Amino acid sequence: MNSPSRVISFVNAGHFIDHYSMLIFAAAVIIMGPALGMAYSELLPYATPGFIAFGAGSLLTGWLGDRWSRRHMMLIFFVGIGTSMISVGFVQTPVQLGAALLAIGIFASIYHPVGTAMIVSYADRLGREMGINGVWGNLGVASSALVTGVIGQYLGWRFAFIVPGVVTILIGIAFAMSVVHEDRKGSKQAAAQARVAKQDMWRVILALLIVVIAISTTFNAVTVALPKLFAERLADLTKSPALLGVIAACVYVFGAMTQYTIGRLLDRYSLKTVALPLSFMLAPFLYLAASLSNLPLILVSIGIVMGAFGQVTVNDAMVGKYTTEEWRSRAYAVRYFVGFTAAGASVGLVAWLYEQGGFVTMLHAFAALCLLAIAAALILPREIRTPQPA
Predict the structure, then answer these.
(1) How far apart are CA 100 and CA 104, in angstroms?
(2) Where are the transmembrane segments (predicted)?
(3) Beta-carbon neighbour count of residue 191 at 10 Å?
(4) Lowest mean per-residue pLDDT among 155-164, 224-233, 241-250
(5) Which residues pair with 195 in a beta bridge?
């Protein structure tokens, strides 16, 4: 038998690596352009196939996780994504670059449906472990630009891919030596951890689809737009790009803290009890942000980030609680496919709404979209209490 804490530690490391690897190019492309003799606008589109594979590939990888082995799939993830990052460091042509970034996206698609299902299978306190896992993913997002910038400045852009690739493969080797394939169908976490009446399951599925589409779109839109919003609206406080970056990072810290807090609450209370009050956060904060600037905008932005990050934890816990072991990876595959597809569409939507009426129009539009999160929480049925054994 595997040690649950050891398995969860490797899965958390995988979440960090997954998000970190997908964002290296976004930071490195600034210094890659002059080195390859290409403009920023010419290089950036080569990342598109990788991001498409990141979402679309989850359907296949989730199915393989259920039907074959989650442990084997995670080993493929560590070695595959590490090798792909190293390969980017050796590319010589744009076609090779596009192929290497596509490979990163394909292997990155393994993590969310497979790794999240492993968390559920081994977690004694699901909400707490979901919250901690979310924090690790956010650390990957936050550190990618910083570490890539430092390595790129002192060692060159190629090593910004090679160094984390080597580290990832070493983690994969440690994972292979420490974690074995294990059938978890007989464990206490194998069954669905929350029960609803059979005739109400359609309400769970509908609520999940609604909230995933609304929150994934809003979450990605906020992360894309926040730096530009701060640059425009915090001009009276500072115009320093570095300080604006620090402010944005501090705002995101509150999001990570919220994921941990919401996770702990999900261990103590029913999912609807936590989801319903949380669903009322985003819409009013987004609406207020449309007309604010300077310190009031920073405070409201903290509320937006807390609401969005908290909802992500609720969404993941919803799938984990209501699905059984044999279907769990496939359920997460559908959840992330829908979520990543909606998130991908949000970038173009942000650009179009900003063109129509600036951040006022954009933030009002996403505030209206987040009313769907309230509807989803209201649709969610109450859980059936099961008698505890003496």
Answers:
(1) 6
(2) 20-40, 46-65, 72-91, 97-123, 135-155, 161-180, 201-222, 242-262, 269-289, 295-314, 334-354, 360-380
(3) 12
(4) 241-250
(5) 384
DSSP 290: T
Residues 6+ apart with CB under 8 A from 102: 49, 50, 53
Is 132 within 8 Å of 13 (Cβ atoms)? no
Q: What single DSSP character describes residue 38?
A: -
State whether CATH 1.20.1250.20 applies to domain 198-383. yes
Query: Rounded to an integer, what distance in angstroms lies between the CA atom of residue 84 and that of residue 167?
Result: 12
The whole-model pTM stands at 0.78
d(CA 207, CA 270): 15
What stretch(es) of the chain map to CATH 1.20.1250.20? 1-181, 198-383
Q: How far from 58 is each of 62, 202, 209, CA to CA, in Å?
A: 6, 23, 16
**What distance in Å separates the CA atoms of residue 209 and residue 310, rounded to the nearest whole number?**
17
Contact 69, 110 (CB under 8 A): no
The reported pLDDT for the residue numbered 100 is 95
- Domain 1-181 fold: Growth Hormone; Chain: A; (1.20.1250)
Would you state the structure tokens that stand for residue 98, as one six-digit string? 């596009």
